[in-house]
Amino acid sequence: MNRRLLTILLVAFVIAGACALFVYRIVRGRVTTTAPIATTRVVAAATDIKLGTVLAQTDLSTVSFTGTVPKGAILNPASAIGRGVVSDIYQGEPILESRLAAPGSGGGLAATIPDGMRACAVAVNEIIGVAGFVTPGMRVDVLVSGNPPSAPGGREDTLTTTILQNIQVLSAGTDIQKDAEGKPQQVQVVTLLVTPDQAQTLSLASSQLKIQLVLRNPLDTKVAPVPSTPLATLFGKAVAPPSHKAEPKAASKPVVHPYSMTIINGSKTTQESFGSSEGQH
Q1: pTM reported for the whole predicted model
Q2: Domain ranges in the chain?
Q3: Domain spanning 37-112 has what CATH number?
Q4: pLDDT at residue 255, as a whole number
Q5: What's the confidence (pLDDT) of residue 36?
Q6: Please, are residues 120 and 207 in contact by the beta-carbon 8 Å criterion?
Q7: Dihedral (CA of 23, 28, 33, 34) sign
Q8: More confident residue, 166 or 66
């Protein structure tokens, strides 16, 4: 091979190697000078945690979070231990302040009650409890049936009216967990989340009237006025307002106008007095 050609090829390889080395050093310098991505370790659930559970050390782990940390994330496990869980938390999910009860409030049903609200229990049977399908987290309306107290002698028509709408079920029986399989279960008590005023209304109704729970779609939050339904409408009869008939007046006694008559019998004359002759024939 021509020595001149070999020289040209050798020089070309040297120049190419030098350029490659130069580019490599530039790229490497830029990569090494780039700031590392910041990560934050947050407290997460080591296993599935059910509502009402009081957190222990074994329930917690930590996970690395890249970028912005979720609002309310707990960074120190000590801040979560001993606090009750107010909604289900799944394994690996960061534990947020909004998912835990306030420190010192414990766990169970009481920890799930928001400020200003009350838990009111209602005794139910299979019919009132919508055949067992009223489970924690469901929404219900509360209906009552009975005779209004203003009815004289209790004879006024029986009425059914809706007293509460879109009320959350806190627990069914002693269970504050949702039924994962959706199977109906017989319960004796349903606990509803209500305001103090609603608690008084519900307590009065449960002690005096017949209560019926009506299941509704949790996404349907509309509260609409519902007129009462009287028993007579089930038979196609219009309900007329009670009539106030005037009591009949006592008939006045006729006025008696006395009169007298002279009777002559031969030589004997007598005077006789009589009552009114009106109306007599």
Answers
A1: 0.56
A2: 37-112, 117-232
A3: 3.90.1210.10
A4: 60
A5: 64
A6: no
A7: positive
A8: 166
